[in-house]
Specification:
It comes from Yokenella regensburgei. By secondary structure, this protein is mainly alpha-helical. It is built from 10 helices and 2 strands, in the order ααααααααααββ. Helix content is 69%, strand content 2%. The longest helix is centred in the middle third of the chain and has 30 residues. Bound molecules: fe (ii) ion (FE2) (2 copies).
Length: 252
């Protein structure tokens, strides 16, 4: 796999690389349980975001219910202290349900990319959980970082601008995840390193899918809005952050 080729557009899209101080903190062995836990929850949140977009913007409620049902066991385990599901069995079931449909071409593009994204993020969730189990790391609930909130608070409050902004935020979150996996991989044990590098290709595609959808929804050119969120994102990454997380800023 050609990592530099996958990463080049991601690095160009982001306004700054991950600060060296974050990598220094993240590579400490004692940080691993927190990092993996936060990463696992982020995978589920990525799936939830995609699912919410489909439910909000696609009229086929029955199809959207099927997507909702996919997420339930993951959400119960992660947010409500539910039992740990049999992820292998869940994974086999996914994709067999009826998918939402629409006659609207951009709506269908949204469904297609979001359904694929949900499938992939749930698979990643399961993979991270397996890495945790293999290392004897129990799942303990943690608070979310300021990162996603910091971007979403800039989202405009009337449609279709809300959708456009949320899609741009999605693009930045995916791109940063991709960049951080690559930055962290060389400092991890061989199995984790292999796993993190295996995620680069899909996360790089996710960011491009979000960006393409944003441009498709918008009537006008979105370059300046993309730049705006790029600056907001870079400020969250480049400023001191008291909480250490997968997407946190400069550790204090
Ligand atoms: Fe993912
Ligand atoms: Fe992703």
């Amino acid at each position: 796999m050609d990592y530099p080729q996958i990463l080049a557009p991601v690095l160009q899209f982001l306004h700054c690389p991950t600060p060296a101080a974050w990598v220094e903190e993240a590579r400490k062995p004692e940080r691993l349980p927190l990092l993996l836990t936060d990463h696992m929850v982020c995978e589920l949140k990525a799936a939830q975001t995609a699912m919410l977009l489909v439910r909000k913007y696609i009229a086929d409620k029955q199809g959207a219910e099927a997507l909702l049902a996919w997420l339930h066991p993951y959400e119960a385990f992660t947010f409500r202290e539910g039992p740990e599901p049999d992820f292998a069995a869940l994974h086999k079931q996914i994709g067999k349900s009826i998918m939402p449909q629409t006659d609207d071409p951009w709506g269908q593009a949204l469904i297609d990319s979001m359904v694929l994204l949900i499938k992939e993020e749930l698979h990643h969730f399961w993979q991270v959980r397996e890495m945790m189990v293999a290392r004897g790391i129990p799942y303990v609930k943690i608070t979310a970082s300021r990162y996603a909130k910091g971007m979403l608070k800039e989202v405009r409050t009337h449609e279709p601008l809300t959708l456009i902004d949320k899609l741009i935020c999605g693009a930045y979150i995916e791109a940063r995840s991709c960049e951080r996996f690559a930055a962290l991989a060389p400092h991890l044990d061989a199995d984790l390193q292999k796993f993190y590098l295996s995620l680069l290709r899909s996360e790089a595609r996710h960011y491009q899918d979000y960006l393409a959808l944003a441009q498709r929804v918008a009537k006008e050119d979105i370059t300046s809005r993309v730049k705006f969120f790029g600056e907001v994102e870079a400020a969250l990454i480049n400023t001191p952050d008291e909480e250490f997380r997968f997407h946190s800023g400069v550790p204090v």
